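Quick start: what a row looks like.
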Amino acid sequence: MLEFAYLALSLIVAILFVAVTILINYKLAPITEKTELKSSTYECGEEIIGEAHIRMSVQYYIYGIAYLITDILAMFIIIWSLTSINLGILGIFSIIFFALISLLGLGYVIKKGLLKWV
């Protein structure tokens, strides 16, 4: 029961820290008015050609997800290889199961053709 009290206290301290930081920022930040010049894009003193505020395409997020899958898989396999003697048969089966699920997700991404450059 005491562990939950420590956890709750840590959570309260973290929330208070964030709240106090935001409040201090609002109190100490200089008050500026929003003008057209301040909200315009700065291009090193050059005249702006065309519209500078464009929407960025987020179609490459799938590369980040695929990288994250393979990175986590590699991390677990490295840890597993260092401690495989102490794991026992259940540990070996669990890491193989995890690797199969991760590779299945990566295979799905490849099969759907989501890793082709657009």
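That is the whole record. DSSP finds two helices and no strands in the chain. The first helix runs from residue 2 to 28.
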